[in-house]
C-alpha cells in the first residue's frame, strides 16, 4: 500500500513539475514549483491585499496588480503598467529558472514571451514569492524572512500609491531612487502618466509634484515636524507618523499608521493632484483628507521670484516689502509669475534683514545648509556674504535650529494664517529704516496707540478699524467702483481669455469642484470619545459643541444639533450651504459635516481660545487681552465682515454678530462663526425684510428688531456694539451698574463723557 502511494507521488511530481495553485485554498505564497494563472490570486494572511490580474478598460489589456481585497477598484500597485498582457490564455506568473519573477504570455519560457520580470540578480536557494498584509510582494529565500535580505520587493517599485511603511526617496550608496507616478487615467489605464511626486535631494531636500518636467507644486523642505508647505501636517499624533530622513546615505519619506485597521494612502492622481485618502469603513468610501495643490498659492510659479502669495489677498500676489512687480502690465492682469524686483540695490555691508513670519520657505534646491548652526550665527554669516539673499532656520522644533542660506532669487514664497515659518530677507538698509528695527515685519505695519477712550474715541476706532485694517482694499475697491462695472467686466473677460490656460494648472479648478467632506458618524464618535461630557465646549439653542481629535491628529470642534429642533435643521442646511463656499482667515473653517439618521453634525477647526465672550467678560481671563490684542481683534473682525459683505463671491449678512460668535485661535486671531442665521444677498441687493426676526437682543439694530428690515448696516450696528464691548470689557445686555439698570449702549449715549473701562 505504502509503495503504491510512493509511486503515485513520483508519478504526480514528474508528470506535472509545475502545478497551478489551487483556487480553492487561499494562500499568500507562490513557490518555485507553482504558477499563477490569470484567473488566480494570492491573498495576504489577513486577507487585506490580493495579488492577481486586472483588466484595463482598454480592449483586452491585462495587468498584474495588487489591490485591497475588501475595497472595490482600489489598485495600489501594478507590475507591467506599460506592457500589458493581451491574451489571458496560457499567460502566467512564476519564479523563473534564474530566480526572477517572470510574467509570460505563453506556456513556453522563451524570452520572446517575457512581458515583465523582476530584475534581481542573485539566484540562490529555493525561493518563494509572498504577499504581506502591508501590501508588499516580496521574493525571498524560503528560510529567510528578514526585510533587509529580500531579493526583491514591490515596495521598491512604487506606481502611483504610497502605502504605510513604504518609502520613496534616494539611496546614494546603491544609486537607486523611488518615486510615485500617476496612472494615465486613474481607475482605467494604469500606464505611466504625466504626473510624478519625487524627492529632490539638492540643497535642502523637498518633494516636487511635476507634470512631466514642469514643477506644479512643492512640499517645501522638512522642518523637523512637517513640510514647510504643509502646515496642516500634525506632528504629535499617535495614529499617523510622518517620517522624513536625510543623511549622506540617502533621503527617505514614509508614513506609518498605528492602527492596522485604518487604511490610508498617498496617491498621485491622474489629474495631477496629490491626495491622502483614508478609507471610511462604515460609509464604504475613500475620503480625501488632504490634497495638493489646494489653492492658487500652492501653484509653483504663481507669484514668481520675491513674490508673496496670500490666498486672502486681492490679487493673491504681493511683492515682498522692498520689491516691486517686474512686469507691471501682467501683474495688473493678475499674472504674477514674473515676480518682483528690488526697489533699491543691495549695498552688502550696510544691508539689513526683513523678518517675514508664517511663510512657506522659498525653494531650497540651491542653498547652503548647516544643520547645527544657530539662527544668530546664520544671520551673521549671511550678512557677511554679499550674495546671500536670505536665511532661515532648518528646523522649527525646540525653538528652531539649523541654518539655511539662499544665494540668488527667492522663489515660491507663500503666506499662511498660521503654521508657517520665519524667513529673513536681505534688503538695502534704507528700505527698512522707516520701520525702525531690522526685525520690522511686513505684516505689522499698522500700529496705533489707543489712549483716552471716550465715546468719541470709540467712534474713531470704528472708523480706524475700517481704514487701517483695509486701507489697501478700500482704496482698490474705490478705484474699481469709479471705473464702473463695464470696465470691470471687461477686465474680467481679459483675465479669463489671457490666462485661461494658466488657470488649468493653478489649482483653482479644484477649489470650484471642492465639495464639503462628509464625515462618518463613527469617525466623530471616535474623535469626541463618544461625546464625552468632559469634551463639551458649550451649549446653545441648537445643540451642543464638543471638542475632538481626528485620527490624523487634527483638533476639531463638533457641533451636534439637538435631534428635536426643527428650526435647527433649517439652520444646519443654511450653514452648510453657506460656509462651505467661504474661505477667509477671519471666518471659522468648516471642515465637513455628518448626517446619520437623526444625527446632524458640523465639524469645524478647533479654536484654542474659544469664544471672545469667554475671555472678555471673565474677570480672571480678561487681562489676557491687552490693548494691542483688542485692537487686532477688532481689525480681524472687520476683515471678516468686509469679506462677507464685499469681497466674497456672495454677499452675506451674518445677522447674529456677537461676542460669543467670535472665536479666537491660539494666537488670538478672531474668526467669525455661526452662520446659521446668515442670509445671502444678491450683488445689487441692499436690503431685505423678514417676518422672523432672529438674532440676539442687545446687538440688533432698531429697524431690524422692530420692523425686520436688515441689510449690511444691521451687521455694522452689531459690530459697533461689539467694538464697545471689546473696548469697555462690559457686556451690553445684562450689564448693570450697581445703582442703575441701563445697558451699555444707553450708558454710552447718555453718559458720553467717559465710560468706566475694563
Ligand atoms: C482558469 O483558467 C484555466 C485555463 O486558462 C482553466 O483551465 C481553469 O479552469 C480556470 N479556472 C477557473 C477557476 O476558472
Ligand atoms: C492580522 O491578523 C492578526 C490576527 O487577527 C492580527 O493580530 C494582526 O495585527 C493583523 N495584522 C495586520 C497587518 O492586519
Ligand atoms: C490567445 O492565444 C491563444 C493561443 O495561445 C489563441 O488560440 C487565441 O486565439 C488567442 N486569443 C486572442 C483573443 O488573441
Ligand atoms: C507574447 O508577447 C510577445 C511580445 O510582446 C509577442 O511577440 C508574442 O506574440 C506574444 N505571444 C502570444 C502567444 O501572445
Ligand atoms: C530589467 O533589466 C533589463 C536589462 O537591464 C531592462 O531592459 C528591463 O527594463 C528591466 N526590467 C525592469 C522591470 O526593471
Ligand atoms: C524614520 O525612518 C528611519 C529610517 O528610514 C528610522 O531609522 C527611524 O526610526 C524612523 N523614525 C520614526 C519616528 O519612525
Ligand atoms: C531609507 O530607508 C531604507 C530602508 O527602507 C534604509 O535602509 C535607509 O537607511 C533609509 N535612509 C535614510 C537616509 O534614512
Ligand atoms: C556648521 O556650524 C557649526 C557651528 O557653527 C560649525 O562648527 C561647523 O563646522 C559647521 N559645519 C559646516 C559643514 O560648515
Ligand atoms: C557665499 O556663500 C556661497 C555659498 O556658500 C559661496 O559659494 C560663496 O563663495 C560665498 N561668498 C563669499 C564672498 O563668501
UniProtKB/TrEMBL annotation:
Protein name from the UniProt record: Receptor-like serine/threonine-protein kinase
One GO term (biological process): defense response to oomycetes
Domain Apple: 348-428
Assigned protein family: In the N-terminal section; belongs to the leguminous lectin family. In the C-terminal section; belongs to the protein kinase superfamily. Ser/Thr protein kinase family.
Membrane topology: Single-pass type I membrane protein
InterPro entries named in the record: Bulb-type_lectin_dom, Bulb-type_lectin_dom_sf, Kinase-like_dom_sf, Pan_app, Prot_kinase_dom, Protein_kinase_ATP_BS, S-locus_recpt_kinase, S_locus_glycoprot_dom
GO cellular component: plasma membrane
TM region(s), chain numbering: 450-469
Coiled-coil intervals, chain numbering: none
Gene field: 11421176
